[in-house]
Design a protein that fits this description.
mainly alpha, elongated
Length: 103
């Protein structure tokens, strides 16, 4: 798979949507969407904006999780729901570190 921007552009085109339609739905500019698609901007880090984009494309379940994971990975991060799980479960964080040999 290519960049997040290519992924977003492919989803948008497959949905038959314009950059302007996505921008209006997400309360952003067409230029903002274009810059993400062209790799000039990193994927959004704002969970609310990611939710709006996933809602625009009617992503649910695994599709929505994959979308959020892909955006986070492209930013060099992990998805916000995973961060929340780890922050709220320190034993799980310890278990993962042990499992993967991290101290």
């Amino acid at each position: 798979m290519g960049t997040f921007g290519q992924f977003l552009r492919d989803m948008r085109k497959n949905a038959g949507a314009t950059q302007e339609a996505l921008a209006v739905f997400c309360n952003r500019t067409k230029q903002y969407i274009s810059d993400i698609e062209k790799g000039r901007n990193k994927p959004p880090n704002d969970p609310e904006l990611l939710f709006k984009i996933s809602h625009f494309f009617k992503l649910k379940g695994n599709e929505k999780e994959k979308f959020e994971d892909y955006a986070a990975k492209a930013r060099g991060d992990i998805a916000s729901d995973i961060k929340e799980i780890l922050n709220n479960n320190p034993k799980e964080l310890t278990r993962l570190r042990k499992q993967y040999g991290k101290k």
